[in-house]
Amino acid sequence: MRKTSLLFTLLVVLFACKSNQKTTTKTSETDKIQAIPVNKNHFIAENIIGEITQEKVDLKGTETLCYIIKTNSRATEHQMGPWCPRHIEDGKEKAGIWFDDGKVYDVSGHFIAELDEFYNDDKWKLYREDGSIKVTDTEEGCLSAAKPDVDEAYQNYCVECLPEYFKNQVTTFVIPVTPTYQNFSQRFGRGGIGLAFNGVKFDPPAPTHAILAAHTIAPLDDHGGHVNPHGGYHYHAVTGSTKEIEQMDEHAPMIGYAIDGFGIYALLDKMGQKPVDLDDCGGHFDNERGYHYHAGAPGDNQIIKCLHGTPGYMQVQE
């Protein structure tokens, strides 16, 4: 009886050891797939200030080798703007886009004229009696309106800031050379959530509640970007206007990097299909790209929803 019991115990221990060995090997392979390094050669060299350098940086208590990337946040593949129409008779070609409830709308003069009906609020009136639209067409107006507590004088305005107001701003991105996947997700702090290959940053969701509360509207251009005083030109939506890295398979093209070093890809693959297994941040794994994100639809006001890697950071110098 004792021999039988001892033999059974040994078999259980041996089985457990083999099972643990298999689990460890599987985890190691997964970790290897996750860590796809950032490819600095994807960035458009003319849009980068100086060289992309490497530096060891303390990220959340861990010394991490990071890329240091400096830009002026100026797009080169496309024109920046237009944003606000000047008259209620202006067509969509003279203005940008706005989003609401997941849908994208052309900000034509007609759209501006009917904002009271669109938002079911008769306090909206961004145009004068002669049909001209109230636009923040100076740097002073931009600074007064493009903030959470909009100056009273600039309420009921179409908010438009021009890139030349902040042409001397330098944005420095600090991004891990090799990203580190974490099982938990993190919400965004202040600053950008990543950057396109042209050096323009991807921003967290636009603060639509604060914008609309002042009866202002801050359109994006057709490329998903607009300008504010705290980071110059930046994107809130991905519309296919920037450099893309085509994939060898049917997967969606790569459009940039998140601030944690994981790649960001367009939403639709070559067959026009959306990925179906995205996690809470908008990311998933595959064998070719490791862990990576997919950008949200243009009307979502959400390029990616959170981060699954140890984030770097960005700094803006005036």
List the defining traits of the structure above.
single chain, 318 residues, alpha+beta, eight-stranded mixed sheet, four-stranded antiparallel sheet, 16 strands, globular, disordered N terminus
N- and C-termini, Cα separation: 82 Å
Largest sheet: 8 strands, mixed
Helix content bin: 10-25%
Uncertain runs are 1-33
Number of helices: 5
- The helix-strand sequence is HEEEEHHHEEEEHEEEEEEEE
Number of strands: 16
Rg over C-alpha atoms, rounded to the nearest angstrom = 24 Å
Strand order of the largest sheet: 9-10-8-7-11-12-14-13
Overall average residue pLDDT: 90
Query: Tell me, what's the shape?
Result: globular
In terms of DSSP E residues, the strand content is 15-25%
Structural class: alpha+beta
SSE order and pairing:
Elements: H1 2-34, E1 53-59, E2 62-71, E3 97-100, E4 103-106, H2 109-113, H3 115-118, H4 139-145, E5 170-176, E6 181-186, E7 194-196, E8 201-202, H5 208-213, E9 225-228, E10 232-235, E11 254-258, E12 263-265, E13 283-286, E14 290-294, E15 307-309, E16 313-317
Parallel strand pairs: 8-10, 12-14
Antiparallel strand pairs: 1-2, 2-5, 3-4, 5-16, 6-15, 7-8, 7-11, 9-10, 11-12, 13-14
